[in-house]
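Let us practice reading a record.
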Amino acid sequence: RFYIDDSAYNVTKNLRQEMESIFDKYDLYDKIKDSGFTTEEVFTLASIVQAEAAKTNDMQLVASVFINRLKNPEDFPKLQSDATNKYYTKVILPQNEDAASQAMYEDAYDTYVSIGLTPSPIGNPGIDAILAVLEAPKTDYFYFCSDINTKECFYANTYDQHKENLKKAGINDEQYFE
């Protein structure tokens, strides 16, 4: 809560205190330290997970897919997140008319183009997404998709399994089968 016309100092002080209490409550400092990721990487990945997973209970498995890809850059250099592509096309692109800026941001934020994580979060992740990244189960999943209508997620180890899951999810767009 903030007072009307409160100072920037008080607003940032309150935000910092709230963040510190959440970090303490969920033991985030130790979990981040044990994760092998930096705080910035955790928040960036959590923002992508937040945007990708429609249900809280899918966040950990979605996080596991991205973590597996990040740990296997020789086979999966790109995260290929629809959420980052939409962030680039719907948020960044309309604000940048300069072609050089567009290319720079696409290289940075569209994970169908860029390698690894985006340079910063694409949104504000909630605690469920942050914990999903920090407590992701160890899986062999490298792919996921979800049915847009039912929000049911499908996970796969191989690209062939993923193509079958796309069909189950009602995604028949030819771009996924190139």
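A brief commentary: The first strand starts at residue 143 and ends at 146.
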